Amino acid sequence: MHLDFMNLTQAYEKARAQAVQEGVEQGQRQVVENLLKFKFGTVDEELVRVVDSLLQLTPEEFTPLCLQLSREELLVRFNSQG
Fold this sequence. Notes:
This protein has 4 helices and no strands.
């Protein structure tokens, strides 16, 4: 019985950690999309593909890129990595 409780606790902790990580990732996606929307007015299909590449970077790396690079620079830099 004690072993079942430990397994259940471990499963819960693992699921909770995964949910937290997914929440962080979703929050970062929202930040990147909002930065791009603010800068370019909209996030079209081409920019949506760039978002996935930007999310491979840390917030300290992707934030200045979103703010400094032009739309064309973002597309060239990150679509070539696909």
